[in-house]
Design a protein that fits this description.
With 271 residues, the chain is an alpha/beta fold. It is built from eight helices and 16 strands.
């Protein structure tokens, strides 16, 4: 059967309620869904240092969605730069890897949003006295992953708050690189998703201090091919079912993400 022809399947929630949905026939036939992931962004996705197995909030959420859909999750590790091409060309069926839902990405992918998030400044705890508030960041070197939306958001914040003493942005190869440069004193502050900071602060106690709150509101979404309307609907139904039966909230609590949860799934809520 051609891809796009639909086959009926069912979602069975933990409380035994059943919700009928439809999946693309090819996915229903193979009984699995291929999901791209870049496991370098704890607590969202990473490899357990002790076992080298994939773990994190996104991994557990993906497996829970798979159970709701009656599908096996096949994780495809890739690079950040290759995720959107992979979804566009059909090499994978979805991306579940802490990806921010941005309007600029919505021509290539449709996002089922499952977390609220936003960037947040942080500094070394040893220098916390220098940064009583975010205004102290003006004129300072601030690092963040160049592959994310953070560079533009930092520039917009700087323009709005710093006048003639702008933030000096330093692009990094990722959040881990930004933290390394921060510890080495090559930058004065760093930015990463606020949802990841509690986990990192637990891993390295006494090392970092957040400065201010998140300074932009964003959404994290599971990305799907724009043409796969049935799969989009099925994932929304599955996520709403996980929210309703408490599985979603339990995962949020486990990974210290409760403050970033959503009440229901949305599509393309990012700007």
């Amino acid at each position: 059967m051609m891809k796009g022809i639909l086959a009926a399947v069912f979602l069975v929630a933990a409380n035994a309620s059943v919700v009928a949905v439809e999946l693309p026939a090819e996915i229903a036939r193979q009984g699995s869904i291929r999901i791209a992931i870049v496991p370098n962004y704890p607590p969202m996705e990473f490899r357990d240092p002790a076992t080298n197995t994939l773990t994190g909030f996104d991994v557990e959420l993906g497996e829970a969605l798979g159970r709701k859909l009656g599908l096996k999750i096949v994780w495809h590790e890739t690079s950040f730069d290759q995720m959107m091409p992979a979804i566009a060309t059909g090499r994978v069926d979805a991306i579940l890897s802490g990806m921010t839902d941005l309007a600029s990405r919505q021509d290539t992918a449709t996002f089922v949003d499952y977390l609220r998030n936003g960037p947040r400044f942080f500094v070394q705890q040893s220098r916390a006295a220098e940064f009583k508030d975010t205004m102290a960041l003006c004129g300072k070197k601030v690092g963040a992953s160049r592959r994310t939306s953070f560079p533009k958001l930092i520039a917009a914040w700087s323009e709005a708050h710093c006048g003639g003493n702008p933030v000096q942005f330093v692009g990094t190869e990722g959040s881990a690189d930004a933290r390394t440069q921060l510890r080495q004193g090559r930058i004065d502050a760093a930015v990463q998703g606020g949802e990841t900071l509690p986990y990192m602060m637990d891993l390295e106690p006494g090392t970092y201090v957040p400065i201010g709150d998140v300074f932009a509101v964003q959404f994290t979404g599971l990305a799907l091919n724009v043409k796969e309307k049935a799969l989009q609907h099925a994932v929304v139904e599955a996520l709403d079912s996980l929210i309703a039966d408490g599985t979603y909230r339990a995962l949020l609590a486990k990974w210290k993400l409760t403050d970033y949860g959503v009440e229901k799934a949305t599509i393309n809520a990012g700007q």
